Amino acid sequence: MNADEIVDPADARSDQVRRFLLHVGVPIFGVVLVVAVIAGIGLHSYRSIRSGALALTHDLLVSEQNYIAQEVGDYLGPATAGTVIARDMLEHGPQTAIIKIFNSYGGSMLRHVPQVHSFYLADSEGHFDLIERDPKGKGLETTQLTGEGAGAQFVHQFHDEKGAMLRTESNPTGNFDPRTREWFRGAAESGKLYWSAPYLISQTGQMIITASIVYQGQDGRKFVFAVNLSMNELTNFLDSLKIGKSGHALILDQDGHLLAGRHMLDVAKKANWDPSKMVLDPQTYPALAQAFDVYRVLGYGPHAIRSGKRNFVTMAAPLPSTAKKWVLILVAPESDFANFAMVDGRQNLLFSLLIVALAALLGGLLFRQGRRTDHVAAELAGLRAVSGRESQTLRAVAGYPALFDPTDEALILTRSLAEMTLARRASVWRLMHDGSTLLCVDSYDARHDAHSGGFELSRTDLQAFFDLVAHGDAITVPDAGADERTVSFHRLFMRTFGSHSLFLAPILGASGPIGMITLEDAPRAGLVSHFVAMIGGVVSARFSAQHYSAVAAAAEELAAPPAEEAEHSLGDGFLIPPGSTQADGHGGPVEGLFPAVAVMVITFADIITSSRADPARIIALVEALAVQLQTVARDHGLYSIKMLGHRLVCVAGCTHTPDPTAAERMANAALVMREASLSILSRADLDPVFRMGIDVGPVFGGLLGDDPKVFNLWGDAIGMAEMMAQGAPDVGTIQVSEEVYQLLRGRFLFRERGRFFVPHAGMTRTYVLAGRR
Questions:
Q1: Strand, helix or coil at 372?
Q2: Alpha carbon distance 107, 93 (integer Å)
Q3: What is the tens place of the pLDDT at every residue in 3-50?
Q4: Which of 424, 507, 565, 760 satisfies CB 3.0 to 4.6 Å to 561 for a cystine?
Q5: Contact indicator for 142, 155 with CB cutoff of 8 Å
Q6: Does 519 score more than 90 pLDDT?
Q7: What is the rounded CA–CA span in Å between residue 552 and residue 255?
């Protein structure tokens, strides 16, 4: 072992840990440190901004509360100060002008103060006067209670905007007595300004609150003057307020009854127009209901609550100028006032994320650069190791003493290929018989350390693969079973071995490819392709040293048989010998172009042709099948039937002039042969392991050789028929070309398969022969 190949495991382990810490630990630590610093700065900034936003929110709510309190005071002013002024006017005015003073004052107030709903004036003897806005016009309506007992009536007078009388109406009082009303009794008993509880007028949807005061007239009677205020105007005012973006303001009494605020009409309908039931509903006002509960526990002032998933800022404050204490509740989402803080926080977050992304990118680049450095170093080390092994292997191959000895098998070549490429199997093939056959010179199985050889592959079976070899280029096929160029080679040579990928390198001679090297499941073949090429050159030199050409091999294999067998070879497989008269009356041809020959190929699976169980039984089965098929061929006037390995080839219409009945005779024979084959295989307890293909087209024929002369046919129709058989969709089916379909579609039934690509023919349609019409 070389000194530079000796490695200390402890040093390697420490280097690996150090590289890991440098390439992975440092970038990760840097990114985490940046994230932690940014997170700390962002948290501190958020807390500072939030505390400032809450302080600002408190100041804004206090200002809003003062503004609302001022507005509510102004709203209630006509009832507080106006009531006292009206009492003094009525108390010191002439007794005969009381009603006139009342109507003048009330009319003026109704015209100029929108929140005033109406005015009452009643005395201790049950007299009652009312002034209000005309519900049907822009003027005023005065109402006076006249009469007593059952004859009492309300007399209504309607005036226009200028005070002119419009009309007069009257209606029964229904036993109305003002002395029984809360506003009268409360003022009479207290002796000062009295505020009644709110009540609803269902006809108009108005919530009314009444402020009343008592005074004594000059004749000694007690009078009560009352002003009715509409809470709807106060509700409209609260609705118009903008408290942040989505804040609310409500006015309640100490018991939680709703006096003014949003959705008042909905609350009134839900309470059936009963003010005592108009309380805060947590489903309608979830945040406000919680704020009122906090007020009842903690009292007046600002508070912070959380409702649902949002934070709210609330303010509870008293309202002045009312006999019964009213409470103003303000509620606004914290985000409405701290939105700028949230925007600033989002901007800080975006900047933070940008910095984190840049830091992560830099860390990733540093990590990637480190890993690439390690990867390149590992590749260089691997290449050095491969180069060292390659040099050793080449020295071993070059030092093999019988490397160019034609009589020596030189098994070291395939073994070296398998070791260098890590292939499961390495094989050397030679083109024989003018390129029509591939002979496996040696095949090395690395898994079992075993050599084999002698396999032969025919161009007839693997046309596409032979064309691939003839190109003379090295190729890699990841899945040989799925590539149309190598699928036949995979089926015949690779599938039983269990390999999938294929690396093919040509062995080049003076006139082109003279063989090939195949490497199965070789992951390192592309890396050492130059080594494979050098071994290919050695193999090419060995082939030249053997003085064995494809032409010489073909001459030996076509050596003349004994004289007594010549006559038999001439007529082998021909139901009508060449040159004799056919059953249809045409003279048998000797040589030339036959324009419309019907060709059928039947392929049998390996279950019959390669089975080793009970040879006598298999031979008897094949003999019975051959005799039956030959009989069918003779009965239908076919020209020839030949058994070629696991294939059966039938020919009809082999004449110089087109035979119009040849295709029909072949189709009838195919249907009978299919039934006969199914019957024989069924009796032998075997599956229908055959496929059939038919084509019609021109072929060439002639007597070849010298002694004996052998009649042979070749042409595209023969190859197409074989492709039809190999590509049949199911076992036991007959697939035909488009030419056969065009000739027979009027007399037979077909099923279309679709369009397929056929080498040397392009796109074509194929059909399945189903039966006769």
A1: helix
A2: 17
A3: 444 445 445 566 667 766 666 666 677 777 777 777 777 677 767 776
A4: 565
A5: no
A6: yes
A7: 122
| d(C-alpha 161, C-alpha 165), whole Å | 10
Start-to-end CA span in the chain (Å): 81
Please state, in angstroms and rounded to a whole number, the distance separating the CA atoms of residues 176 and 384.
Answer: 118
Amino acid at 188: A
| 297 burial level (CB within 10 Å; 0-12, 13-18, 19+) | exposed
Instruction: List the Cα angle 515/521/526 in 5-degree steps.
Output: 70
Sign of CA dihedral 81, 82, 88, 89: positive
pLDDT in tens, 725-742: 888 877 788 999 999 999
- State mean pLDDT over 379-408: 77
Instruction: Identify the CA nearest to 496 among candidates 441, 437, 435, 455.
Output: 455
- Look over the chain and give the mean of its residue pLDDT values, rounded to a whole number: 78
Kindly state the greatest CA–CA separation across the chain.
169
Angle between helices 98-112 and 26-92 (to 10 degrees): 160
Q: Which domains does the chain have, with CATH numbers?
A: 412-555 (3.30.450.40), 572-772 (3.30.70.1230)
Beta strands in 99-221 (DSSP E): 116-123, 128-133, 140-146, 153-159, 165-172, 194-195, 199-201, 206-216
Report in angstroms the alpha-carbon separations of 20 from 32, 357, 379. Answer: 17, 22, 18
Residue 118 Cα to chain centre, angstroms: 70
For CA atoms 258, 263, 268, 270, the dihedral sign is: negative
* Phi and psi, residue 28, nearest 5°: -65, -45
Say which residues have a Cβ less than 8 Å from residue 449's Cβ, sequence separation at least 6: none
Q: How far apart are CA 365 and CA 352, in angstroms?
A: 20
Tokens 């491969």, residue? Answer: 386
Q: Give the whole-angstrom CA distance, residue 748 versus residue 773.
A: 5
User: In percent, how much of the chain has pLDDT > 70?
Assistant: 82
How far, in Å, CA of 690 to CA of 572, rounded? 23
Question: Which residues make Cβ contacts (< 8 Å) with residue 335, sequence separation at least 6?
Answer: 310, 311, 342
Residue pair 520/424 in contact by the 8 Å Cβ criterion: yes
Pairing of strands 734-737, 690-704: parallel
Residue 575 has φ and ψ, to the nearest 5°, of: -70, -30
Nearest residue to 432 (alpha-carbon basis) of 403, 380, 469: 469
**Per-residue model confidence as pLDDT tens digits over 176-233:** 889 888 889 988 888 888 888 777 776 666 778 888 999 988 888 889 999 988 877 7
**Which residue is listed with tokens 């069924």?**
682
Tell me, yes or no, if the pTM score tops 0.70: no
CA dist., res. 54 & res. 51, Å (int):
5
Contact 97, 91 (CB under 8 A): no
